[in-house]
Amino acid sequence: MKGLVEYLAKALVDNPAPVEVFEAGTAGDAVFRLKVARDDLGKVIGKKGRTAKAFRTLLSAAGAKQNLRVTLEILEPEPLPAAAAAAAAPVTTPTTTADAPAPAASQNDDE
After folding, report:
1. Per the domain annotation, does 110 fall within a domain?
2. Which of 80, 61, 71, 59 is CA-nearest to residue 32?
3. CB 84 within 8 A of CB 77
4. Cα–Cα distance between 80 and 88 in angstroms, integer?
5. Which of 16, 47, 61, 80 could form a disulfide with 10 if both were Cys (CB 3.0 to 4.6 A apart)?
6. Where are any strands of DSSP class E within 10-105?
7. Which of 81, 83, 52, 39 is nearest to 60 (CA)?
């Protein structure tokens, strides 16, 4: 069952290397904790959680054949360290009115 979780997760993500699956639970219950890269988290969850729901449905069907109740937990990646977060943040430069070009003088034929 753990192999199924790993196979499905690796098929969904762009970068399959950091995919990790941890298994826990009791005799009749299986709990799988899925950990993926920060960039691939959205691919595993999907829009409005539809992909995660389908993932859980497949695992429930596979677990029913083995008389198991299966739970899938999708773990959030660890937060980036402060130095890495600052490096990853986009740099924006504020524009001031001194940087803006001066408006052109209008010529009036009435004068």
Report:
1. no
2. 71
3. no
4. 9
5. 16
6. 20-25, 29-35, 69-75
7. 52
CB atoms < 10 A from the CB of 3, how many? 8
**Tokens 């970068």 label which residue?**
15
pLDDT tens column, 50-109: 999 999 999 999 999 999 999 999 998 877 666 555 666 666 655 555 555 666 666 665
Q: How many domains does one find in the chain? A: 1
Structural domain for 24, as ranges: 2-78
What 3-state DSSP class applies to 33?
strand
Is residue 23 assigned to a domain?
Answer: yes
Dihedral angle, C-alpha 54, 55, 61, 66, nearest 10 °: -170
Q: What's the Rg (C-alpha) of the chain?
A: 26
Measured CA to CA, the distance from residue 105 to residue 68 in angstroms comes to 79
Residue 40 in contact with residue 10, Cβ under 8 Å? no
Measured CA to CA, the distance from residue 22 to residue 82 in angstroms comes to 28
Residue keyed to tokens 């209008």: 106
* In a domain? residue 84: no
